[in-house]
Design a protein that fits this description.
Elements lengths: L1 E5 L3 H12 L3 E5 L3 H8 L10 H10 L3 E4 L2 H6 L3 E4 L15 H10 L6 E6 L7 H12 L4 E6 L9 H6 L4 E4 L3 H10 L10 E4 L1 H32 L3 H9 L20 H14 L5 H24 L8 E5 L14 H11 L3 E5 L4 H5 L6 E2 L3 H5 L4 E4 L11 H7 L4 E4 L6 H6 L3 E3 L6 H13 L1
Parallel strand pairs: 1-2, 1-4, 2-3, 4-5, 5-6, 7-8, 9-10, 9-12, 10-11, 12-13, 13-14
Helix pairs in contact: 1-3, 5-6, 9-11, 9-12, 9-18, 11-12, 12-13
């Protein structure tokens, strides 16, 4: 099939490369000429494992191309995917749909024959209705159908998620549009990937509900981690015990410094706003957002307490800057808030990330960026693990003890066994493992007795 994707960002580029790999003829459209020139040279503007080779291979085979000629690409397309950004709107938190609506206006005059316009961008309920209205108004003769086809890609695992999805959600009541979308995803039938046809509004809400639920699940286990620290339990074992229940599942039950990234924060906020406008507030999501916002700075306070209550003039090493491993994405990363809070408390920060350094340099000021984990730990009074990159899982603990000004590790991702680190002679503080707060509580009880 002939597919045109508007927007060569994360979703558009991954989707385009994967659709081309299925054998479809794909053109990715972007107005950023510098980006298009980079893509033509085989330079990928984002970090996603396997994406560079996938793009290079399909460009070489002639199935994938990049252009700024929107009209020509839309005119011959069977399906036009809208894959532009929908960031949180400044001031009120609603999803900014201006890019989506601009695309609708641009593609309308070029539509010919029957064309499916599929929205991959994450959009609030009812956006498809407005896209349909705009296109019909701009081109009264257009023969088209607007469908919702949300993406469920995890950064760092996007290609695998696209090739082996849990489900493919398609929202449309148009029989011909459903047939076309069924053909688009037909190559996945061998993987038994279910194409789940629903109404357009149902598909739009399914995306938001999924992300908000996962954000809530993360927030729940983080609150359990805090409780574990108070009562002397181990959140790792609590999570395992919960995850063994098939009704709950083990995924997203990993305690840490809070969720970040491009999806969970903005999508939870947008869902909250949609629900408020519909006079059906989602209290659980509202609380999830508030708790997650507070948690990141609370992790900085945890570091300060572990360092004796004051860090003014001290050096803190930070390992991991991106919001998760296997991506260079710094959007809403917990590291941003944690580092700022530590700086506010008077600390000097030195930091390292295997992939995200270039992005971080544009965002974080007054930080010494290091070449590796050991340079980050050198002369530091504490080493804080913020992102669970594999490169941090087997550090030479003896070397850390020798090189650090004070042998303190604050592991906000629980990637080490506590006894392993403590037996090496380092102070170790993790998340939700009956640590500092439990010890403080025990000492208070002892004093009272």
């Amino acid at each position: 099939m002939r597919i045109t994707i508007i927007g060569a960002g994360y979703v558009g580029l991954v989707s385009g490369a994967c659709f081309a790999d299925f054998g479809h003829q794909v053109t990715c459209i972007d107005k950023d000429k510098a980006k298009l020139e980079s893509l033509a040279r085989g330079e990928i503007p984002i970090y996603e494992p396997g994406l560079e080779a996938l793009v290079e291979g399909n460009v070489a085979q002639g199935r994938l191309s990049f252009s700024d000629d929107l009209g020509a690409a839309v005119a011959v397309a069977d399906v036009v995917f809208i894959a532009v950004g929908t960031p949180s709107r400044r001031g009120d938190g609603y999803a900014d749909l201006s890019y989506v609506y601009d695309v609708a206006r641009l593609i309308a005059p070029a539509l010919s024959d029957f064309t499916v316009v599929a929205t991959k961008s994450t959009v609030p309920v009812g956006t498809g209705d407005e896209v349909e209205r705009i296109i019909a108004e701009e081109n009264r003769d257009a023969d088209f159908a607007v469908v919702s086809n949300p993406e469920f890609l995890r950064e760092g695992s996007a290609i695998e998620d696209f090739r082996r999805p849990d489900r493919i959600v398609v929202g449309s009541d148009d029989d011909e549009a459903r047939r076309v979308m069924d053909e688009v995803y037909r190559p996945l039938y061998l993987n038994a990937a279910p194409v789940f046809f629903v109404t357009r509004r149902t598909a739009e809400l399914t995306k938001y509900a999924s992300n908000a639920f996962l954000a809530m699940k993360i927030t729940f286990i983080n609150e359990m981690a805090d409780l574990c620290e108070r009562v002397g339990a181990d959140v790792q074992d609590v999570a395992r015990g919960m995850g063994m229940d098939k009704r709950i599942g083990a995924k997203f039950l990993h305690a840490g410094p809070g969720y970040g990234g491009s999806c969970f924060p903005k999508d939870s906020l947008a869902l909250m706003k949609t629900a408020q406008d519909a006079d059906s507030p989602v209290r659980l999501i509202e609380t999830t957002i508030a708790i997650n916002d507070q948690r990141k700075r609370a992790m900085a306070r945890k570091v300060i307490r572990t360092c004796g209550g004051a860090i003014r003039g001290k050096t803190i090493g930070v390992l991991g800057l991106t919001f998760k491993p296997n991506t260079d994405d710094m959007r809403e990363a917990p590291s941003l808030v944690i580092i700022q809070a530590l700086k506010d408390a008077g600390a000097k920060i030195q930091a390292y990330d295997p992939i995200g350094m270039d992005q971080a340099r544009h965002i974080i000021e007054d930080v010494a960026f290091c070449d590796d984990p050991y340079a980050t730990a050198k002369d530091a009074h504490a080493l804080v693990i913020v992102t669970e990159w594999n490169a941090f899982r087997s550090l030479d603990l003896d070397r850390l003890k020798r090189d650090m000004a004070s042998p303190v590790i604050v592991d906000l991702r629980n990637i080490y066994e506590p006894d392993q680190v403590r037996n090496a002679g380092l102070v170790y503080e993790s998340v939700g493992q009956g640590g500092e707060m439990y010890n403080v509580g025990i000492n208070k009880l002892s004093a009272a007795e």
